[in-house]
Prior knowledge:
By secondary structure, this protein is mainly beta. The chain has strands at 5-12, 18-24, 28-30, 34-36, 39-42, 46-50, 58-62, 72-74.
Amino acid sequence: MARDQFAVPIKCNSCGQVGSTAWDQLCRFESGVGFRRRLISVSNGFHNEFASVPSKDPKIVCDACGTALSELELT
């Protein structure tokens, strides 16, 4: 992993699947949205879906049960 990236472990509260995400360390400011991180990768067992406006943040979903990131927890 590059020095400008950081990993965040995740766990699905519904089925217990564990994985991690890699994010760009540098945030950028967008008018009307605020600071945004950039998702670089998602481990096997999870996938990224585009979230709705206005946040435009990635939506990370468990492949096993379909639970979205808002219902996932950091491990």
